[in-house]
Every structure is written in structure tokens, then in C-alpha cells.
Automatic annotation (TrEMBL):
Record-linked Gene3D superfamilies: Cytidine Deaminase, domain 2, SET domain
Native source organism of the sequence: Malassezia brasiliensis
Name this protein carries in UniProt: tRNA-specific adenosine deaminase subunit tad3
GO MF annotation terms: catalytic activity
GO biological process: nucleobase-containing compound metabolic process
InterPro entries tied to this protein: Cytidine_deaminase-like, SET_dom, SET_dom_sf
Positions of the SET domain: 20-132
Length: 524
């Protein structure tokens, strides 16, 4: 947030210490900004900023009259005003872009903000976040508006209502438990990402039922405040499910849905606005009417009716019109996640799923340079599996290595195969054997003089390494969920590390695989 009217002249580079070597530099048009000094991969946490909070009365009396007003934002809305926050560290120096390369997530419990890259960033590129929708305070009148980006864009739209729970630290929307998608037969890419995350270009528009009522335009702001208070106090139990939706819509544009699913036309002669109240299910119509009647008074007639609304926010700006035709809503900014519902605790369906663009995935593997070393890794893995099978073991193998450096050299290259037959042990699968081999290799290396600079976490689990497999381990070994069922440990939100899983689409392309007795699934 480097846009400020302050007359101070910043130095070209402001000294700063951080683990990724980020630089604070003067930008041509936006004051100071955060710039990458070297390339940064996608999905890397680049900053965790603590926040300094200001009570509503304190900020109104003092803070808004100072330069703080250009850097603070609403942290939490309360009945007596909004708590404002100032991001410390690099948090206040990320400039705005409608095509942000960094996403952020508020952690109200820990009073901090986590910033994470949403794509690969090149050296010298500025790191930007999306402040939100609408015209920014520094933009001129001829600057084109952009659609709203998040539900917490502070009242940039008429009648917008913040339904976020004060105790809820997630900024994601709600999506039904996704299907774990396997590699299709018609893909042109050699590798297919194994993930439950939907593709923003192909994910279906799912809808749910919600309660709405009509209100006069002059009363809408007051009605919104009443509904917000009832939702915050949990009198209305399902308001948080609607936070990705706009609160108001012209009543004449609304299609009412009866309980028998027969659509009833709305009144096309009224100038009233339809107001979204709650999701269908947690409370009955009669219960909601009994709660709303005394709270609304003469502001609106609590005659509730059912409407259909999108289950989640639009996955991209290009599909916003499709979603908004059902009910006006927001679209997900780059890197935002969809919180999935109806999920087993701890399963992949319980995490916040970042959308996966399959077209971008396919483009990533079109270059032979990107796939040659992967092809070689699978070929080596298959050779080990064939040798194990010839020795009387089960034909499963693993190969651990790292991406080659500029000279094509790698520091580690270890093979392992299944030894359940030899050892008579059900857990002697190739994967734990490979992990054991890495541990032994690292233990031996610690006795030798250390070369180069050690990096924090470099020897933690398989950090920085690639694991090639001929077969996905069984559920007892790693909760693979029968080749990609409801569990997928690489997509658990509670883990303190992250990795991707890719499958080679056509294992028949490897002649080494023809001698194996069991069908293979080449995973990376």
C-alpha cells in the first residue's frame, strides 16, 4: 500500500532482511514496492506480517487524520464501529494489481497476515496483491472500474453486507466435496496433476436454496445492518454460507422457487429490492419469520420466499456473468481457495482448495527440456522394479532425486524397491524403504565436512526432492485412498509442508514397464 500523499522521498532501495531476499524498491508509479531479487516458485509463503490493531474510537479520533489512513484496513466489523489494522513488516508495502501474483489470508486468531505466491515469479518482478474491487482511492475518475474481488471490500458497493464470522479465520467460500479427478485419456500433456481442486474453466455452476425477502430501496441499508447483527450474533445460523453473494438484487429480476420446485414469477411491477437472508435448511421459514419480525419492525415485511443462489464464488472473472445470472456474487481473486464442505475431518475435502488451471498445467510440460529428466527418472524407477521382480520381490520401486542444476548435476539419486516378501513385513513398501535410504544417506553425509551454505529445513522429510513411484502405496501405508479416494495426504491443510503429485498419463510409453506383473501408475 505505497500510495500516499506524503512528501517524503524514498530511497531507491530500502534495506530489509528476509529469508527470500525480497527487496523494497522505488517503483515508477506506486511509491515503494516489494521486488523479487531472484526467481520464486508458485505457492511459496513470502511473508507473514503481524498486525497492529486500532479500536474504532481510537482510530476515528486520531488514526484517520494521519498517514495511517493510507495503510490501514478493516480487520473486523463491530456494532460500535470497525477495528482497523496496520500490517507490519512487508505487509503494508505490497502494491495493488488486478492481476496479482501474491494472495493473502487473514488469521484473526493469531493476528497476522500470510502472503503466498500464486504463480512462478521471475527475478526483478514486483510482488503485488489485489486490494479489492472498484475504484481505488488514488485512481482518477477516468480509470475503469473492476468487478468486486472479495466480500470484505469495505462497502464499495451499495447495500453490501459483511457476513464473515468474527471467530472465522478463513476467507474461503463453501463448495461441495470435490471429485478426485484422475488423468483423462484425451489429454495431450504427458503429466497430469492428481488433485481434488477444480478447474476454473470447467467446474460446474452448482446452486443451493436460500431465503430472501423484499424491502423498499430507502430501507435497504437499515435492513442490511439488522441482518448483519443477527448473523454476527448467530441468531441467523447460516449467514456465513452467503458471504460470497451480494445482499441485494432487484425483486423484478428474481425467480422465486416453491418448495415443490415449481418456479413462480416475481412481481415485475415493483421497485423493491430482494434481500438475501439465510441459506435454506438450518432454520425453517416460521423460525426465521419469528426472529425477523421484531428485529425489522416496519423496515420490511418478513414474507420469506426461496431463491436459487450459487454455492460458491465465480471461479474467475470471465465466468462472473454466468454466476451472476443466478444471483449477483463475487469472483475469486488469484490464489484464493474454495473451502469444501461435507468433508471428513482431516481429509483433502476439508482443506481450502486452490483452483487448478489444467490448460496451464498442460503447457508446463510441452517442452522436452521440462520432461526429459522426469522421463529418465521413471525409466530408472521401472528398471529397479523389474530387477526386484526378477529377484522374487513384488515389482514396485521408488527413485528419489532432485532437479538437476545448471550443469546437469544432482547431489542425491537413491533407488528403493519393495521388500515385503524378503522381510515378511507388510510395511516394507518401496516408499518407506526410499525414505529410510534418504535418512541413511543424510546421516552419512553429516559425518563429512559440510560444503556450501546450509539452508533451513533442507533435510526435513523429502524437502526439495522428487519421489518417483511405480505404484501408489496402499491405504495402510500413506492413506492414498485406493488410488485417489477421499484421502490425499498431499492436500491436507494441517501439514507444515506441501508437495504436488503428478501422474505420467501413458505408462505404456516405457518399454521397461512391459515385464511387470501388476499394472503400474507412474506417480511423481
Amino acid at each position: 500500500m505505497a500510495h500516499s500523499d506524503a512528501a517524503a522521498a524514498w530511497k531507491e532501495v530500502t534495506p530489509h532482511l528476509n529469508s527470500l531476499g525480497l527487496r523494497i524498491c522505488e517503483t515508477p508509479t506506486a511509491g515503494r514496492g516489494v521486488v523479487a531479487s531472484h526467481s520464486i516458485a508458485r505457492d511459496v509463503v513470502v511473508e507473514i506480517s503481524p498486525v497492529l490493531l486500532f479500536a474504532a474510537d481510537e482510530y476515528q479520533a486520531h488514526g484517520r487524520h494521519t498517514q495511517l489512513d493510507s495503510y490501514t484496513f478493516v480487520w473486523e466489523k463491530r456494532a460500535n464501529g470497525s477495528t482497523m489494522a496496520l500490517a507490519l513488516g512487508l505487509g503494508s508495502l505490497f502494491n495493488h494489481s488486478t492481476h496479482a501474483n501474491v494472495s493473502y489470508q487473514l488469521n484473526r486468531a493469531a493476528q497476522c497476515i500470510q502472503f503466498r505466491t500464486v504463480r512462478d515469479i521471475a527475478a526483478g518482478e514486483e510482488l503485488c496483491i489485489c486490494y479489492g474491487a472498484g475504484k481505488m482511492w488514488w485512481e482518477t475518475d477516468d480509470t475503469p472500474n473492476t468487478p468486486p474481488a472479495t466480500e470484505t471490500d469495505e462497502c464499495t458497493l451499495f447495500g453490501q453486507m459483511d457476513l464473515a464470522d468474527a471467530d472465522d479465520t478463513s476467507s474461503s467460500d463453501t463448495l461441495q466435496s470435490p471429485t478426485y479427478v484422475r488423468a483423462p485419456v484425451d489429454t495431450d500433456a504427458p503429466l497430469w496433476r492428481i488433485t481434488a481442486s477444480p478447474d476454473p474453466h470447467t467446474m460446474p455452476l452448482d446452486t443451493m436454496l436460500a431465503w430472501a425477502l423484499d424491502a423498499e430501496p430507502r430501507n435497504c441499508a437499515s435492513v442490511a445492518r439488522v441482518l448483519q447483527a443477527l448473523t454476527k450474533d448467530k441468531v441467523i445460523q447460516s449467514g456465513a454460507q452467503l458471504r460470497h453473494l451480494r445482499t441485494f438484487r432487484k425483486a423484478c429480476e428474481v425467480t422465486r422457487v416453491g418448495s415443490d420446485e415449481n418456479k413462480l414469477p416475481g412481481n415485475d411491477k415493483t421497485d423493491r429490492l430482494a434481500v438475501l437472508v439465510a441459506a435454506y435448511g438450518p432454520q425453517s421459514r416460521d423460525e426465521l419469520v419469528a426472529l425477523l419480525a421484531p428485529a425489522l419492525g416496519d423496515l420490511a415485511v418478513p414474507e420469506l420466499y426461496l431463491v436459487r443462489v450459487p454455492v460458491c464464488a465465480a471461479p474467475s472473472r470471465t465466468r462472473l456473468a454466468e454466476w451472476a445470472s443466478v444471483w449477483p456474487c463475487i469472483f475469486l481473486p488469484p490464489g484464493a481457495g474454495l473451502a469444501t464442505g461435507n468433508a471428513l475431518p482431516g481429509s483433502d475435502a476439508a482443506r481450502a482448495a486452490t483452483l487448478v488451471d489444467r490448460a496451464q498445467d498442460a503447457a508446463r510440460w510441452q517442452s522436452p527440456c521440462a520432461t526429459d529428466w522426469i522421463r529418465a527418472g521413471f525409466a530408472r524407477c521401472l528398471k529397479t522394479a523389474c530387477a526386484a521382480q526378477a529377484a522374487g520381490e513384488i515389482g514396485c520401486a521408488a527413485f528419489v532425486t532432485e532437479a538437476p542444476d545448471a550443469q546437469g548435476q544432482v547431489a542425491i539419486a537413491l533407488d528403493a524397491n519393495d521388500t515385503r516378501t524378503r522381510d515378511g513385513h507388510p510395511l516394507r513398501h518401496a516408499v518407506p524403504n526410499a525414505v529410510r535410504a534418504v535418512a541413511e544417506w543424510r546421516a552419512a553425509r553429516r559425518t563429512a565436512p559440510v560444503e556450501g551454505v546450509a539452508a533451513n529445513g533442507q533435510d526435513y522429510l523429502l524437502t526439495g526432492l522428487s519421489l518417483f513411484l511405480t505404484h501408489e502405496p496402499g491405504r495402510a501405508a500413506c492413506l492414498g485412498g485406493e488410488d485417489g479416494g477421499p484421502y490425499a495426504i498431499h492436500e491436507q491443510s494441517g501439514l507444515n509442508h506441501h508437495y504436488d503429485v503428478w501422474r505420467w498419463v501413458d505408462p505404456n510409453a516405457f518399454p521397461e514397464a512391459r515385464g511387470l506383473a501388476s499394472a503400474i501408475a507412474l506417480d511423481l
